[in-house]
């Protein structure tokens, strides 16, 4: 993963009296979702330009990004980001901003790319911790990624077999998600993915593992749960999503999910068998009209 500092870009300093001067700390932006995943951009007492044009310090080659989209500005009070009247806006922690100071851990979204702002006395340590986290967590939704899901499912299946304990798996995806992207735009689609991940994580137990399996598809590993209990949980999250108001930039987006449920029985020899059973039932739910749960063939 590259760590490159490009030529210094000088901008006029911004007058700001909102707070006392702060001690200058090392800081950087790390790509946690999008192209150049894991790349680090150091902020070393200089301003940076972000945009689609190749002349920018941080170049993001996406149609949703303006040629000169935003500025990172270093002043006596900290480090701020200023939107440059871009077409699609700049977001901090999902809030659209014109100008705002960054705090350690803030998520900055430009187009479909997401950066994490790191600041402190030891950002190298923080950076390496973030890279390790990216190996297990999906940058967009902040739930576990497919790799971590597969490793955990293998481990939980082995434990269930060894101790003769129940284990269930849910696979669900968003109904007509392509239509959502085509109608409301990919930024709205990203919002829906993040919100669904939040809602399901809030409803899940601590021992459950919620993961993004790929695209608009998610999984939930349910240790110590038999098929009936898994069906009940699946119905709860299906209804939760159906009743939720998904509103993005003033527009309401209808969202439902279809769910396939499987548990460990005599037909399951390995993790792939369990996944295939849940996936088959997911497609049965979609074929049966969507916005429903299927737990048997």
Description of the structure:
The protein has 297 residues and is of the alpha+beta class. It has 2 domains: 110 residues, Tumour Suppressor Smad4; 149 residues, Reverse transcriptase/Diguanylate cyclase domain (Alpha-Beta Plaits), CATH 3.30.70.270. 30% of the residues lie in helices and 29% in strands. The chain has 6 helices and 18 strands. Strand 1 and strand 2 form a beta hairpin. Helix 3 crosses helix 4.
Series of secondary-structure elements, N-terminal to C-terminal: EEEEEEEEEEEHHEHHEEHEEEHE
Question: Strand portion, in percent?
Answer: 25-35%
In CATH, the homologous superfamily of the largest domain goes by the name Reverse transcriptase/Diguanylate cyclase domain
- Main pleated sheet: 6 strands, antiparallel
Number of helices, where a helix is a run of at least 4 consecutive DSSP H or I residues: 6
- Average residue-wise pLDDT: 91
How many beta-strand elements?
18
Work out the count of structural domains: 2
- Provide the spatial order of strands within the biggest beta sheet: 2-1-11-10-7-8
Contiguous runs where pLDDT drops below 50 for at least 5 residues: 1-17
CATH class descriptor of the largest domain: Alpha Beta
What fold name stands as the CATH topology of the largest domain?
Alpha-Beta Plaits
Short précis:
The chain is an alpha+beta fold and 297 residues long.
Topology:
Elements: E1 26-33, E2 40-43, E3 48-51, E4 58-59, E5 70-75, E6 78-83, E7 90-92, E8 95-97, E9 99-101, E10 107-110, E11 113-120, H1 123-134, H2 146-163, E12 167-174, H3 177-184, H4 186-203, E13 209-214, E14 217-223, H5 227-243, E15 246-248, E16 251-253, E17 257-263, H6 271-287, E18 293-294
């Amino acid at each position: 993963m590259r760590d490159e500092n490009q030529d210094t870009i000088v901008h006029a300093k911004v007058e700001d009296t909102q707070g006392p001067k702060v001690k200058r700390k090392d800081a950087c932006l790390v790509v946690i979702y999008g192209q150049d995943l894991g790349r680090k951009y150091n902020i070393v007492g200089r301003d940076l330009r972000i945009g689609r044009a190749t002349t920018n310090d941080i170049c993001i080659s996406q149609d949703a990004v303006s040629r000169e989209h935003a500025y990172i500005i270093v002043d006596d009070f900290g480090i701020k980001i200023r939107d440059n009247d871009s077409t699609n806006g700049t977001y901090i922690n999902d809030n659209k901003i014109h100008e705002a100071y960054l705090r350690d851990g803030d998520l900055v979204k430009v187009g479909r790319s997401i950066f994490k702002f790191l600041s402190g006395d030891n950002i190298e340590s923080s950076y390496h911790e973030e890279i390790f986290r990216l190996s297990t967590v999906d940058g967009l939704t902040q739930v576990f990624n497919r790799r971590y899901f597969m490793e955990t499912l293998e481990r939980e299946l082995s434990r269930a077999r060894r101790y003769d304990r129940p284990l269930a798996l849910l696979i669900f995806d968003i109904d007509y998600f392509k239509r959502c992207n085509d109608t409301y735009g990919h930024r709205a689609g990203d919002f829906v993915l993040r919100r669904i991940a939040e809602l399901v994580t809030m409803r899940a137990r601590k021992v459950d593992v919620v993961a993004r399996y790929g695209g608009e598809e998610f999984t939930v590993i349910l240790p110590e749960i038999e098929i009936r209990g898994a069906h009940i949980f699946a119905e709860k999250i299906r209804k939760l999503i159906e009743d939720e108001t998904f509103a993005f930039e003033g527009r309401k987006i209808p969202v439902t999910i279809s769910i396939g449920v499987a548990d460990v029985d005599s037909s399951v020899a390995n993790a792939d068998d369990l996944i295939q059973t849940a996936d088959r039932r997911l497609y049965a739910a979609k074929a049966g009209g969507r916005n429903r749960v299927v737990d048997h063939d």
